[in-house]
Amino acid sequence: MGCLQSTPASNYAAPPQANGAAASIGHVDVIFFPEPSGKMPCRNANTPRGCHRHNCNYEHGPTLIGRFLQYLNSATRTLDICVFTITCDEISDAVMALHKRGVKVRVITDDDQANSLGSDIDKFRQCGIPVKVDHSKTHMHHKFAVIDHRLLMNGSFNWTRQAVLGNQENVVMIENPKLVHDFSQCFEKLWSQFRA
């Protein structure tokens, strides 16, 4: 069948049903990067002291990465991260703060990227976050996180400043029991296969 021919809809399986009804979608949101301002958020702007720098080079208003971090910071029990490369300090700092608050954090990443310049994986290990990598000639190229077994964050978005500020990227946040379950199963499979 060529590219221009269509496959009749009857050739595809019907969508899975949950208890005889379509599975509940729940909350859905999407963030499209890059950051419009081209700036990371100012760490002092939203503190009680505020930012007192005359010509601050950081964004003082709402940001896309700020929205992303709100979702990440909603974790209260578990955070399973399966991301190809992690170099963005703002995201890594939030992950380590969640770990320090008692959230059970686990990280799976690519072995080549874990050792690349700017990688935050060693910081995770040093603060006690368990990390596993693929140890293969191919790449562990996923970019997803599961929060509290209720929320999935998934898309093209690597957790890097380049992804935040420069690349055309997306990340979808969705509360859908089936998708959360499927991605959690994928995480557990990789966690059992990979090594520290």
Automatic annotation (TrEMBL):
Coiled coil regions in record: none
Domain C3H1-type residue range list: 36-63
Family, similarity comment: Belongs to the phospholipase D family. MitoPLD/Zucchini subfamily.
Designated name of the protein: Mitochondrial cardiolipin hydrolase
Molecular function in Gene Ontology: RNA endonuclease activity producing 5'-phosphomonoesters, hydrolytic mechanism; zinc ion binding
Keywords, comma-separated and alphabetical: Hydrolase, Lipid degradation, Lipid metabolism, Metal-binding, Zinc, Zinc-finger
One Pfam family cited in the UniProt record for this chain: PLDc_2
Zinc finger residue extent: C3H1-type: 36-63
InterPro entries on file: PLD-like_dom, PLD_domain, PLipase_D/transphosphatidylase, Znf_CCCH
Naturally occurring in which organism (per UniProt): Chlamydomonas euryale
One GO-annotated biological process of the protein: lipid catabolic process
GO cellular component: mitochondrion
Keyword Lipid metabolism appears in the UniProt entry: yes
Domain PLD phosphodiesterase positions: 136-163
